[in-house]
Design a protein that fits this description.
Helices cover 41% and strands 10% of the residues. It is built from 9 helices and 6 strands. Helix 6 links the parallel strand 2 and strand 3. The longest helix has 18 residues.
Amino acid sequence: MSAATPPKLTPPQLPAGVLLDMDGTVIDSEPYWIAAEQELVEKFGHTWTDEDAKSLVGNSLVDSAVILQNAGVKWTVDQILDFLLDRVIADVKQRMPWRPGAQKLLAELRSAHIPYALVTASYRSFSGLVAEAGQFDALVPGDEVTHGKPHPESYLLAAQKLGVDVTKCVAIEDSVPGIASALASGAHTIGVPCMVPIPPQPGLSRVASLTDVNLPLLRIIAGGQAVDQLAGC
């Protein structure tokens, strides 16, 4: 009796799309935001610490504005957002602070014809500059969604704009609220820490830097396998 022929294993497919957060993930803009926040709080005679700044990472801009009000800023939410965005946009126009590995990853995605979207809490007036510079196929800014992160709306809308199934996408984030948003959408998710640590959790992949993200890794993660390069660190 002849041995049964082992079934052929189909290698995992590349993701249908890649969905990337912006601040702290694609660009190192968090220092720009922190400087603007500090300047604003000090205008009103108060102090803004590094811990205060870290508490805003990954929040919607409206939520961040309310926290700044609670820190003593006697302006409306709109006034606060106008001030912060003006400062950060001016800084980015002076120098686009790409995160290590970001431009290389985007170039690899373009070469492989994998569509990619920018998914951010920042508003279009700012994120549009980054989307254009990085040749993103779609942009979902924070001022064009009803529910900001950690709600999944932003990632669901990004996949819809790319015309792909979100469950066949890989999302890349640097914050806890952003990771919660991406996972809730059904996207395979990679956490890349920047300003704040990213705790391990089931189904979440973690890497130290975007320099560690390449097509072979995306293929593995899109196939359903979580890869935690930070375990034990």
